Amino acid sequence: MSHCTTFSMSFQDKRTLFRALRTLGYQPENVVWTEYKNMFSKELMIGGTVLGKLLTGFKDGVHVYFEETKDGLIPYFESHDLSPGLLRQRSASLLSEIREGYLQGTVEALRDSIVAAGGTVTVSEEKSGQVISYVLTIGTDARKLRISMNEQGTVEEAVEGVLGRSCAELTEGIEQKLSSPSELERTWTHEYNATVEDQQIQILRLY
Predict the structure, then answer these.
(1) Measured between alpha carbons, how far is residue 134 from residues 28, 97, 145, 162, 180 in Å?
(2) Which of 3, 17, 100, 133 has its CA at 20 to 30 Å from residue 25's CA atom?
(3) 55 near 67, Cβ under 8 Å?
(4) Which SS3 state, helix, strand or coil, does residue 152 take?
(5) Is the pLDDT assigned to residue 189 strictly greater than 60?
(6) Alpha-carbon span 138 to 114, nearest angstrom
(7) Cα–Cα distance list, 13 to 8, 68, 116, 117 (Å)
(8) Treating both helix axes as pointing N-terminal to C-terminal, what angle do 84-116 and 166-178 enclose, rounded to 10 degrees?
(9) Which tens digit of pLDDT belongs to each residue from 33-77?
(10) 133 and 127 in contact (C-beta within 8 Å)?
């Protein structure tokens, strides 16, 4: 293994998030969103604060909207019909679903970029308890990228069989979509210090 990286997942790419929400049936839109202090004010449409044009969706009686910040797109959930306790429960379930959909979309984008650049890659999905993993096998040898995420949204990447700094090229696009740089905790191994660069992985600089 050339390196292992751990970080808390965040939504960094609006286009990937939009596609994930559409695939999951949230009927996403980019709309002007106004925040109100209470439901009475919202019904009368008075005293609201315009948050701007936000990505929104709706599923299972819950509205979700994403506020754009320097740390990424932050999700918020609201419902007119659910009790606070039930809303918290359903929001947790929906957030887990959205994270999984976003991770899958990010992996698929990486796969497509490798294929478009003339490379070959296979992707397999694994589930163990509350952990979901995607394993990308590049080429016909032992070069692999494993991306795992638990229920709390903690992501771990592990690169195997890639020598030198090319291993960082392999994960850069994934990390840009899943986390801010300050969140990354990376452990290097001796394979990273090898002087030979993997030419096939260099194509990912275009990703």
Answers:
(1) 25, 16, 8, 17, 21
(2) 133
(3) no
(4) coil
(5) no
(6) 9
(7) 15, 10, 20, 21
(8) 150
(9) 666 666 655 665 676 676 667 899 999 999 999 998 988 999 999
(10) yes
Q: Which two tokens stand for residue 148?
A: 């795992």
pLDDT at 199: 47
> Which residue from 126, 129, 94, 128 is spatially nearest to 107, judged by alpha carbons?
126
What's the burial of 155, exposed, middle or buried (CB within 10 Å: 0-12/13-18/19+)? buried
The reported pLDDT for the residue numbered 41 is 59
Burial class (CB in 10 A: 0-12, 13-18, 19+), 161: middle
Strand 29-35 and strand 62-69: the pairing is unpaired
- Per-residue pLDDT band at 173 (split at 50, 70, 90): confident
> Two tokens at 131?
């952990």
Nearest partner of 170 among 121, 132, 124, judged by Cα: 121
Whether the CB-CB separation of 145 and 169 falls below 8 Å is answered with no
> Two tokens at 32?
């002007």
H or E element that contains 35 = strand 29-35
Q: 56 pairs with which residues across the strands?
A: 29, 65
Instruction: Give the DSSP H/E element, type plus range, for residue 22.
Output: helix 14-23
Tokens 């030198």 belong to residue? 164
CA angle 78, 20, 94 (to 5 degrees): 35
Which residue matches tokens 């679903």?
97
Q: Which amino acid is at 179?
A: S
